[in-house]
Amino acid sequence: MKCGTISVDDMSKAKPLELKIPPGNPVIAVTTGDPAGIGPEITAKAVAGGGIYEFCRPLVIGDRKSIEREIVHNELNLTISEAGDSGEGDYRPGRLVLLSPRSLQENDFPIGKVSADCGRAAFEYIRQAVQLALAKRVAAIVTGPINKQSLKESGITLTGHTEILAELTGTRDPLTMFEIYGEMRVFFLSRHVSLRQACDMVKKERVLDYIIRCTEALKQLRLKDDRPFAVAGLNPHCGENGLFGREEIDEIIPAIEEARKAGIKVAGPFGADSVFAMARKGEFSAVLSMYHDQGHIAAKTLNFARTVSVTLGMPILRTSVDHGTAFDIAGKGLADPASLIEAVKLAAVYA
What we know:
Layout: H1 8-12, E1 27-31, H2 39-48, E2 57-61, H3 64-73, E3 79-82, E4 95-99, H4 116-134, E5 140-143, H5 148-153, H6 161-169, E6 175-180, E7 184-188, H7 195-200, H8 204-220, E8 229-232, H9 247-261, E9 266-270, H10 272-280, E10 286-289, H11 292-303, E11 307-312, E12 318-321, H12 338-350
Parallel strand pairs: 1-2, 1-5, 2-4, 3-4, 5-12, 7-10, 8-9, 8-10
Antiparallel strand pairs: 6-7, 6-11, 11-12
């Protein structure tokens, strides 16, 4: 058994992903994330730049005091306009349309610190956005960074965005896709588990289930992409015929073969040291990585600031920045809104 291969000539013919902003101006809910982190800052900067109004009408869900602080500190030409409960507001450049959940009282949240109050607020922002999306008041949601420790201290047992969204939408095992706009898409067979657990999760049934669901999710995005869906190997050189592990032989290849019998255009397994470079050349519609860091490292090395996380397989569409709360620079005016802008742009494309 050898890893999947592709010729240099084939790679030279590859075309990059081409995505275009569709006509229309959808309302996109943007949560600011943990108010102690950089979420309020990057949100205010993104809206103040005015560029995202070319793609959508951004409905910001967060804390007014935190956003006002960032507007003043960063000397932004921006006025806050209160939104109605259903998301209606005065959407135009120079204005930030804000919806603050009524379940939360105004609070002087700390900056750059773990806080139960901040964890609770971040959760409520997500819940408000999901409610609006389920009610079709917004076309998609974009989430700012949250802090898992703050969530825990607030009494919320769900560990992150994906788990929260699954609970709020009644979804079993949502799909996570990373996209570097116009260059590469990566799915993940497992997410926040130990590496040992991730290896144990590489089973034929799971790999087959993900191939089916990931390719179906791409169709639902109406991409009109007929390139094969690629599957990464788990072991170095896909195990070298069992010398470095048998997961490819016993689990991954049988799943790929069964998917092909079902009519799915899937290729692999390919060694993880080459499959992402091949994807960037345009050979594949997307890549299924076998575990968290395998795909994260590839995407973030390619372009950290422009990597966007997309959650699929739910009744709503969600994109997100792919960085954390950055408590070390919160409130200092140093945060870059580029990832948030890319997340809003991608949400508008897919909405």
